[in-house]
Design brief:
The chain is an alpha/beta fold. The protein is built from twelve helices and eleven strands. The protein has three domains: 90 residues, Winged helix-like DNA-binding domain superfamily/Winged helix DNA-binding domain (Arc Repressor Mutant, subunit A, Orthogonal Bundle); 96 residues, Periplasmic binding protein-like II (D-Maltodextrin-Binding Protein, domain 2, 3-Layer(aba) Sandwich), CATH 3.40.190; 104 residues, D-Maltodextrin-Binding Protein, domain 2, CATH 3.40.190. Strands 3, 4, 5, 6, 9, 10 and 11 form a seven-stranded mixed sheet that branches. Helix 2 crosses helix 3. The longest helix has 29 residues.
């Protein structure tokens, strides 16, 4: 029996299924456009591999033995799986050309999407991608209104209503001016920053809401000196000494060697964040969108 995997081929299984369904070797051969002798030879090879008869021949056709019924059940499952795989791969094949609309939050665009979209483009050069930046709440709204094929955002209120896949995760860190009192600290907690003034992102961003939520949980209010619309501007404001900022760690690392700032790991558990891919329903995705979703969902 250990030789079955190596010696039992799909053609033999397909012909065996045809014989079982037609209950006649000649009709099965006609259906499969092959000689009856070739069908008989394939059946004999299956029986030789198993060591037991799978059919019994009679004047009115064939009957399937109990062993044959077992083989038939598995053969149908194997052939069905192959057909499903073919159908799924056809979606990818059909998706090599097309247009995909993606709406994503700032964190995913700044940190991950440029490289991931470029890698996808090398595999699918004829798929054009329209990428729009919005805050996480608006990502949900736009996808719900069919304004984009899918979205990428942080898990926020309402995201549970969508089908979703994990995309990436990041960790928040504290960016401080070079002369800040904590500039040489190995790591800090949110409580260590209770007396500092902050530079923040616009009020509707997921990061702003997260910080406001954590401040509220600690019964304090953030002293936000100013708000800007981009992480680049946020880092430059810290460099100018206008306050400190909490930013995704990979973003802060881009500036530690070019600006007079220090990046300090944030020790709080909530500093580890997750990004998700959301969409209305997988079966509603176009072939191109499904290909991109699968590609992004398989990133490390």
């Amino acid at each position: 029996m250990e030789n079955l995997l190596k010696k039992l081929d799909l053609t033999s299984l397909r012909l065996f299924v045809a014989v079982c369904q037609e209950r006649n070797i000649a009709r099965a051969a006609e259906r499969e456009f092959i000689a009856s002798s070739a069908v008989s030879r394939r059946i004999a090879e299956i029986e030789a591999l198993i060591g037991l008869p799978v059919i019994q021949r009679g004047s009115r056709g064939i009957t399937v033995t109990p062993v044959g019924e077992t083989v038939l059940r598995y053969a149908l499952a194997i052939i069905g799986n192959i057909e499903q795989m073919s159908a799924e791969l056809s979606r990818f094949s059909a998706g090599v050309k097309g247009r995909v609309r993606v709406v994503a939050n700032l964190s995913s665009i700044v940190q991950f999407l440029p490289e991931d979209v470029a890698a996808f483009g090398r595999a699918f050069p004829d798929v054009s991608i329209e990428l729009e930046e919005e805050n996480s709440a608006d990502v949900l709204r736009i996808v719900d209104e069919h304004g984009a094929d899918f979205g990428i955002c942080n898990p926020v209120a309402g995201s549970e209503a969508f089908e979703q896949l994990p995309y990436r995760q990041d960790r928040l860190a504290v960016l401080v001016p070079g002369g800040h009192r904590l500039a040489e600290a190995a790591r800090v907690s949110f409580d260590d920053l209770s007396h500092d003034s902050f530079v923040g992102l616009r009020s509707e961003s997921a990061l702003t809401r997260l910080l406001a939520q954590q401040a509220s949980s600690a019964s304090r209010q953030l002293d936000v000196r100013m708000r800007v619309s981009s992480l680049d501007a946020l880092c430059r404001m810290v460099h100018a000494g206008l306050g400190i900022a909490i930013v995704p760690e990979p973003v802060g690392l881009l500036y530690v060697n070019t600006l007079d700032v220090r990046l300090l790991p944030l020790a709080d558990a909530w500093a580890e964040r997750h990004l998700i891919i959301i969409f209305k329903a997988r079966e509603q995705l176009s072939a191109s969108a499904a290909a991109l979703v699968s590609f992004l969902g398989n990133q490390p």
